[in-house]
Amino acid sequence: MAFSALYANKLRSLLTMLGIIIGVGAVIAMVSVGMGVRSNVQESIASLGSNMLIVSPGSSNRSGPRSAAGSMKTLKYDDAKAIQSKVKNIEYLSPSVSSNYQIVNGNQNWNSSVQGITPEYMNIKSLSVESGSFISSDNLQKRERVAVIGTTVASNLFGDENPVGKNIRVNNQPFRVIGLLETKGQSSMGQDQDDVVLIPLTTAQERMLGITHVQSVSVQVKEAMYMDQVQEDIETLLRQRHKIIGGKEDDFHVRNLTSLMETMTQTTTMITLLLGSVAGISLVVGGIGIMNIMMVSVTERTREIGIRKALGATFSNIMMQFLIESVVIGVVGGIIGIFVGCGLSSLIAALGDFTTVITWAPIVVSFTFSVGIGLIFGILPARKAARLDPIEALRYE
User: Fold this and answer.
1) Is the CB of residue 330 less than 8 Å from the CB of residue 373?
2) Domain segments of the chain: what residues?
3) How far apart are CA 333 and CA 340, in angstroms?
4) DSSP assigned state of 49
5) Cα angle vertex 10, ends 8, 13, to 5°?
6) What is the mean pLDDT of residues 172-180?
7) Is residue 279 helix, strand or coil?
8) What share of the chain is helix, strand, coil (3-state, %, to 5)?
9) Residues 140-172 pLDDT 10s
10) C-beta atoms surrounding 36 within 10 Å
11) How far is CA 28 from CA 36, 290, 343, in A?
12) DSSP-derived 3-state class of residue 29
């Protein structure tokens, strides 16, 4: 009887479901966007390396006009060497400098990021060499003009040729390509990780930039449990080396990427919950719509209910009929809403060039909520129908 009543009023049933469909779809789509943001942030931080500390020049609390990134000169290569030799529980350490230059091969040219690094950089960034070799300690000591290039640089300068052993010019200075990196693709923030030229740190400092300072020092700690201790030891050592005493402000700062990831994860979780809650309001509105239509349905079918009760239908029979109607609307609306939500999520990812993450949790929660709403908001109309007096109902026009 319940299914027959719904089928007899197809358009009304569909319009009643619409609130549930929009609600479930919105919850799934919004939560997938929030989870996508969270995933992007985590991947972006994780791409810098696991158990990482980044030592940068300049105070983190510095007020007033700030200099451009990497322009501070308070962090030296000797500071990095001292950290590596005196601080315990460090697995890898790599100071670095970088700048953008034009790279030339014959009549081909390409603008790319040129980074001065040490051999440990390979382990910190989890890089692999497709052909040739990586920068060695010997290259570093001799300040050799050698380079390891990414696949984007290689394809733009050499096409399909193997670049290893060939010569290129970096800012009009000759360099020999000794290695080609394996493809890493785009980072989570959309940056091309293969558009890079790596050269020895000493070569970059003395032959390219003419500087003695470094722009950052990446420190990979052996275990996560040592992170806070290593950070404290680095800060103490650098204060001693830079003769910072008393309440004098540090001329460097150390960022703990593990703590940063935890903070960003908490923030993105809050954003996801907020998006899901806002979308969830439409589910409640859809439930009120179900109750509204079912109340109208009870009024319209008063004589029908009277006839059924006169023929022996009990309180529970009438209650069950109207509850089934409202629950079916919630179930069918929820199922359609799941497909709509997944479709919306995929559409956002395709049109916005943005990663969305669909998980089972919002699907299960929103569907359960839609069924629960159908049940809860169907009780009042069902009770009203079941409590109708059969004689009064039969008289109803």
Assistant:
1) yes
2) 2-43+262-395, 59-250
3) 10
4) -
5) 110
6) 93
7) helix
8) 55, 20, 25
9) 999 999 999 999 999 999 988 899 999 999 988
10) 22
11) 12, 21, 10
12) helix
